[in-house]
Design brief:
The protein is α/β, with parallel strands linked by helices. The chain has eight helices and 15 strands. The chain folds into two domains: about 190 residues, 3-Layer(aba) Sandwich (Rossmann fold), CATH 3.40.50.170; about 90 residues, Formyl transferase, C-terminal domain (Methionyl-tRNA Fmet Formyltransferase, Chain A, domain 2, Roll), CATH 3.10.25.10. The chain has a seven-stranded mixed sheet. Strands 10, 11, 12, 13, 14 and 15 form a six-stranded antiparallel sheet that branches. Helix 1 packs parallel to helix 6 and helix 5 packs antiparallel against helix 7. About 40% of the residues are buried. It catalyses: L-methionyl-tRNA(fMet) + (6R)-10-formyltetrahydrofolate = N-formyl-L-methionyl-tRNA(fMet) + (6S)-5,6,7,8-tetrahydrofolate + H(+).
């Protein structure tokens, strides 16, 4: 089986390696290089860098739609099937028809739940205890194609998006090899579109603590945004990054500091309380929460700023 692999971030690397060990990878396709860091140095995505190390044929087209040259490159590679894993672009129908067995996508949710760009993060934010990987036949929609293989994965209660991504990446690597070995023999199962939920890309706003949520909801949100944008709270307008959150006992006004001790900071939620181990003020290094509280004069009764939803933009006439 000759395979073309479409992927970009580090999450996709175990999937690429598993395919490479079992099949012939005839083309790797990744997003174009992007400026990174303070110096804005042009840097290839991890999949592109790994393909270069391995000496695999590499393409990084800026666009796929109406790109006859790239379609011919894919056709000329001899790929019998293409696999996408966190590639980051929708595929036009003209491209999907090029490989004999089409495109297979590794999606990190139990479709039709959590279609979209951030299924790992949104599953945690919404308090899911089980997620999984779906191998689907790609169509022109956003994760709407028929399901070929699916496997559940229990979510450990202490996992953040970082640990869950590692577990799902390993699961996806194993499942895609199974799917490729059975190419053409897996009966496609249409998704129940009425049951679909969506997992939009995160924004900085998603990291803001909603003190009027329950403690469980606040901690689950923190787990989901651990990689980016991270958990953010405000005190007297000053931005703070919070880490090491877990649910604890306590009662008070949402956002009110209940206790400050050497173990950290306890803050009331709408239901229960949240214990915080680490605080990072803007432009400073992260520090134990009690050290920050002492320096900032934070004590029981101090109340964090309330989060208010952004005002929706008015509809265009």
């Amino acid at each position: 089986m000759k395979v073309a692999f479409f992927g970009s971030p580090a999450f996709a690397l175990p999937v690429l390696e598993a395919i490479r060990e079992a099949f012939e990878v005839v083309l790797v396709v990744a997003q174009p290089d992007k400026p990174v860091g303070r110096g804005l140095k042009l840097t290839p995505p991890p999949v592109a860098a790994r393909a270069a190390e391995l000496g695999l044929p590499l393409a990084q087209p800026k666009r796929l739609r109406n790109n006859a040259a790239f379609a011919e490159q894919l056709r000329g590679s001899g790929a019998e099937v293409a696999v996408t894993c966190a590639y980051g672009k929708l595929l036009p129908g003209s491209l999907l028809a090029v490989p004999r067995y089409g495109f297979l996508n590794t999606h990190t949710s139990l479709l039709p739940k959590y279609r979209g760009a951030a299924p790992i993060q949104q599953a945690l934010i919404h308090g899911e205890t089980v997620t999984g990987t779906t191998i689907m036949q790609t169509d022109e929609g956003m994760d709407t194609g028929p399901i070929l293989l699916q496997e559940a994965l229990p979510i450990h209660p202490d996992w953040t998006a970082l640990e869950l991504a590692d577990a799902l990446s390993a699961q996806a690597a194993r499942l895609i090899v199974d799917a490729l070995r059975r190419a053409g023999d897996l009966p496609p199962q249409p998704q129940d579109h009425a049951q679909a939920t969506h997992a939009p890309m995160l924004s900085k706003e998603d990291g803001f603590v909603r003190w009027h949520d329950t403690a469980r909801q606040i901690v689950d949100r923190s787990r989901g945004v651990a990689a980016w944008p991270q958990t953010t709270a405000f005190l007297n307008g000053a931005r703070l990054k919070l880490a090491g959150l877990h649910v604890t006992e306590g009662h008070g006004r949402p956002g009110q500091v209940l206790r400050v001790d050497e173990d950290g900071l306890t803050v009331a939620a709408a239901e229960g309380a949240v214990h915080i181990r680490t605080v990072q003020p803007e432009t400073k290094k992260a520090q134990p929460a009690h050290t920050w509280a002492q320096a900032a004069g934070v004590q029981p009764g101090t109340t964090f700023d309330a989060w208010t939803p952004p005002t929706p933009e008015p509809a265009q006439p």
